[in-house]
Amino acid sequence: MNQHIGSSFDDLMVEEGLFHETQAHAIKKVLAWQIQQRMAERSLSKTKMASRMNTSRSALDRLLDENDPSVTLSTMSKAAEALGMHIEMNLVPNTHHDPAPA
Q: I want to staple 50 with a disulfide (CB 3.0 to 4.6 A). Which of 14, 60, 88, 94 is the partner?
């Protein structure tokens, strides 16, 4: 009998140890897309955006690379500020059965 019948996809991902990595990748992908969209709306080149962020073009490229998980809250905040925006984050209860550490 299949042990996953009746389980949610999230439960399977947690069980396989993939949930958090996949969730982090999805968040980074959405963030990178949103920044790119706002840059396009404002006709901002990467060079100009990096200048507004007071960072290097390579740091901006890492932020915009959806496959590069290394992004800091500081970098995200600088990008948002450069676009006239801000970051909102929330802690919400798990909807899957990943037990909290003791």
A: 60
102 pLDDT exceeds 80?
A: no
* C-alpha–C-alpha distance, residues 90 and 82, integer Å: 22
Domains of the chain: 15-82 (1.10.260)
Q: What is the pTM of this model?
A: 0.73
Per residue in 22-58, pLDDT tens? 778 888 899 999 999 999 999 999 999 999 999 999 9
12: number of Cβ within 10 Å: 14
Instruction: Note whether 29 and 66 are within 8 A (CB).
Output: yes
Q: Which string of DSSP letters, residue by residue, matches 40-82?
A: HHTT--HHHHHHHHTS-HHHHHHHH-TT-----HHHHHHHHHH
